[in-house]
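ok so for the tutorial part 2 we go from a plain amino acid sequence to predicted structure tokens. step 1 is just haveing the sequence, like this:
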Amino acid sequence: ISTFRDYDTVIAEANRLPWGLAAYAWTGSARTAAAVSADLESGMVSINQAPLGFPEVPFGGIKASGHGSEGGSEAMEGWLVTKFTAENTVF
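step 2 — the prediction. this is what the tokens look like for a chain of 91 residues:
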């Protein structure tokens, strides 16, 4: 856990790491919360709370933490294949 006085420094420090599974931030500002969520290179971001994994939401990271998600409806997209078949039934 680290504290920072400068927003750009904290974002640069967090994004410097090769992992991007989850990030946590505490702030009293809705504007800062939205900016943190947008600026962090992480598959999941938790603002002002510790629990992050819920069955109904996607779980996954980016960078060295992997690509793609499991859980939630988004996880199913990787298993789906769309196929179109046209058949001439009159010969």
